[in-house]
Amino acid sequence: MQELYATIDLGSNSFHMLTAALVHDEIKILESNSEKVMLAEGLTKKQGIHPQAMQRGLECIARFAQRIENIPPENVRIIGTNTLRAASNAKQFVNQLEKVLKNNSINIVSGIEEARLIYLGVNHSWSNLNQNTKNLVVDIGGGSTEFIVGRNFKLRQAESLRMGCVAFRRFFPENKVTESAFKKAVKAAKFQIANIQKELKTNAWDNVIGSAGTFKAIEKILIQLELSDEGITLKGLKTLKEILLQFDNMDDISIPGLKAPRDQTIIPGVAIALAIFQALKIKKMHISRGGLREGILYDLIGRIKAEDIRQRSISALSQRYHVPEFRSQLLTKISKKLAGNIKTSKSLSLSQENLKFLEWAAQCCRIGLALSHSQYQKHSAYLIKYSELSGFTIKEREVLAAIVKNHRRKLCFTALEEVQISELEIKRLSIVILILRLANIIGQNGKSNQSGHIKIEANSQCFTIVMREKWFAKHHLIGQALELEQDYWRKTGFELVINLKND
């Protein structure tokens, strides 16, 4: 039986869904669906996502949910991008979407993580990529535009700007098309590009590759108008601009190769594209058939079947802040031993993802020492929460930061409660925190071979640590630390019991 996978990209312009199967270790796309939702239409700082856009999104997700209901949740990944990052009412909307999706959660990614996933999708989809060329990938979305420079699968630079084909509709009120409005849109895009222009140009590239719907739509029009055989040129863009400006209103646009509802975003999309070509002095752009949704798919299957890039990010983070390798290895080793000796009810049993977070927290919980020894757990949490960690969603960074913040001293679960995870998951993560705290106490003397006999029993309100009485009597400092632990946990509503047994 084929193992099925699905990815959903909740973009600011369109919602996209891919379903795929792994056949003989090769990914086979089974179905691809896109619906124009225009989530960023009418988006304001105060009011957030417009109710009509919300309704379109909910109706679309209801249809997508039916198609993925028989796929295991661990084989589904749903990503939210710029509008769900920026909107003031994004959390409320995400809650509504997740109710429709039932067992599947939505992951909001940063602009840089979005860029990495786009680059991954392009690398797997554009046949002309090779290891000897450096490539610039550009993706115009509904609310943001990503710029990525890399060679083969190695990403060198990633930038995300708050400009998109739906967001830039604001330059064309009531869908009216004028040359002055078009010039204002181009000028606004160039102003944003100026922030990254110098740095991008120093990272010189051999090829420019366009991803996502806007560039695909432009290429299709240019081919239909016989202005291109393949790809997009600056000359073709300028000609297309003149053709589009002949229309007085977006609703009236009718040109070969352009289908509704793309006519509502093609003019702001062309304005952004023209600004990119002129600002970066691009002569020719190739088009990739793959992008963000394909990148999400390859990243998902990579997590399950091969390397989880998140581990590479944690290793790099630990090295950046000079955590001694023996320390992170010691804490990881003790944590794994304790996690292997834990007994819980079925509902509280730790998932593989919980165990991954335990291991990552053990590896990087000491990075805050690079700033200060006093309250270093808080510094560690801050660095994790606000660092760009490839592969991690914003919520995953917040969860990891909360675990690390609680690995010593006073306990405070407020950070976990603010992440918007279920009460059951908070209880599981409380067990993760207990294991990490216990490992930190035991590992203070630098030895890892003394924790094998320790067992942990956990339920929703009580943790019991079972250990040998003679061993406990020999380790006075550990005993004192555990007595203090009991006070810390009592203040959070948990009971921590120390059960000493004769050998």
Describe this structure in words.
The structure is a single chain. With about 500 residues, the protein is of the alpha/beta class. The protein is built from 18 helices and 15 strands. It has 3 domains: about 5-110 and about 295-300, ATPase, nucleotide binding domain (Nucleotidyltransferase, domain 5); about 125-290, Exopolyphosphatase. Domain 2 (Nucleotidyltransferase, domain 5); about 305-450, Orthogonal Bundle (Hypothetical protein af1432). The strands form 3 sheets. A 6-stranded mixed β-sheet has the order 8-7-6-9-11-10, sandwiched between helices. Strands 3-2-1-4-5 form a 5-stranded mixed β-sheet, with helices on both faces. A 4-stranded mixed β-sheet has the order 12-13-14-15. Strand 7 and strand 8 (about 155-160) form a beta hairpin. Helix 4 (about 110-125) packs across helix 9 (about 290-305), helix 7 runs antiparallel to helix 8 (about 265-280) and helix 11 (about 325-340) crosses helix 16. The two termini are about 50 Å apart.
